[in-house]
Amino acid sequence: MRYLLFLLFILTACATPTNKNTIYIRLSPEKLLLEQREIEKEDFLEEFKLVVRQKMKEGIKKETLKIDLQVNEQTRREDIADIEFVFRRLDVRTINYTTFK
């Protein structure tokens, strides 16, 4: 029985998709999550630079980076524009926008 559970655990871990060239961002009116870490909106540029540099150290080219941006429907447009400005400044072009409530 133990071996069966162990085998199922290994199969589940191997089947879980991981996309190393994707950076996950979740933006809401009160907080900002970058790669599962809560950061201040004012510090986004520096934190995002660190994440991009880390991805490049892992061998991922900047041209292949993708952004998965989840935005709360109540978020102000200027907050989204500030984040988009950082993407343009660092030349990250592929962005997948989704909304949540």
Tell me what the structure shows.
This protein is of the alpha/beta class and 101 residues long. It has a single domain (21-100), classed as Nucleotidyltransferase, domain 5 (2-Layer Sandwich), CATH 3.30.420. The protein is 41% helix and 26% strand. It contains three helices and five strands; from the N terminus they run H-E-E-E-H-E-H-E. The chain has helices at 2-15, 44-57, 77-89, and strands at residues 22-27, 32-34, 37-39, 66-72, 94-100. It has a five-stranded mixed sheet, with helices on one face. The chain is globular and about 55 Å long. The mean pLDDT is 86.
The end-to-end distance, rounded to whole angstroms, is: 42 Å
Largest sheet: 5 strands, mixed
Highest-level CATH class: Alpha Beta
Per the principal axes of the C-alpha atoms, what is the gross shape?
globular
Determine the mean pLDDT.
Answer: 86
CATH topology: Nucleotidyltransferase, domain 5
Q: Give the DSSP E fraction (strand runs of 2 or more residues).
A: 25-35%
Strand order of the largest sheet: 3-2-1-4-5
Overall radius of gyration:
17 Å
Summing up helix and strand content along with how strands pair, one would put the structural category as alpha/beta
> Based on the structure given, which CATH architecture is correct?
2-Layer Sandwich
Helix content: 40-55%
List unreliable stretches of 5+ residues: none
Total helices: the number is 3
Number of strands: 5
Structure at a glance:
With 101 residues, the chain is of the alpha/beta class.
